[in-house]
Amino acid sequence: MKKKISKLSDHDKLINLIAVQGEKDVNHLLQSVDQVFLEVFKLKKKDLPWLSNNSEEEWDSVIRKVRLGIFKLYFEYLKKERTYH
Description:
The chain has 85 residues and is an all-alpha fold.
């Protein structure tokens, strides 16, 4: 299983992560994370590779990994909140 995951693109990993969490409104969730980039990192929409075709390959790779990381942190937080002690 781990080898299969490592062969996926960051976008495919992101989609799988969202699917596993059972999110119903994927588009809203993606837009919410895009807002994090715009507000916290002071980026413009044109700086986000998935919203623009004018992106360098290295920037595209890094920003997609950061996006995947934000989702992973968010879902781990939700999982922590659901755990009852």
